[in-house]
Amino acid sequence: MIIKKTINPFTTNSYILIQDGHGVLVDPVGDPEEFAKTLEENQAKCLGIVYTHGHYDHIASAYAFYQQFQVPLQIHSADREMFYFPEKNLSMYFSRNFSLEEGIPVITFEDLEVLTFGGILLQVYHTPGHTPGSVCLQWESDLFTGDTIFEGSIGRTDFPGSDPKIMQSSLQKLKAMDPGLAIHPGHGDSSTIEEELLENPYMR
């Protein structure tokens, strides 16, 4: 089961993955108690908090979610420092100065790792370009793409740490994936690889 929540001022999509009493949060932003309520309603326990990249609109609630669920935060190694440097996580764009408190456990992962949370297995695909450590996370036939690709568009590549040429390489990875994969982006509506190959100008 996948439950999408967009209850935050950034219009960031957060996802709750639930299977056999286990839950994983992907890019959770907003009120942790709302997520806890959803997990409880589905008789699931949160085993992991995973981020597709380290921009502020995705990590703004990281401390609150750690406090609520007491599980480590997980992110690609290339974006780990974005938890601690406002100039890298771009919180200044939102008139904030975000830096994660020291002592909060952060686990990093690499390309092609499989993250295991009970029966939920997330395959990591490193797709840099929007940020150095952007990833897509595959769970069975679903792909959580963060800000790498959206319905009809892609993530911006004019931010500090972004790279349009590297983004093109990442898009090539997506083009080679199963066209039947459902895409669940960091903003906007869901899609499929097949639909984006047909309709997204950046995937042609």
Automatic annotation (TrEMBL):
Ranges of residues in domain Metallo-beta-lactamase: 11-187
Family annotation (SMART domains): Lactamase_B
Region (Disordered) residue spans: 185-204
Keywords: Hydrolase, Metal-binding, Zinc
Cofactor: Zn(2+)
GO molecular function, one term: hydrolase activity
Pfam family, one: Lactamase_B
Domain of life of the native organism: Bacteria
Listed name of the protein: MBL fold metallo-hydrolase
Lineage: Bacteria, Bacillati, Bacillota, Clostridia, Eubacteriales
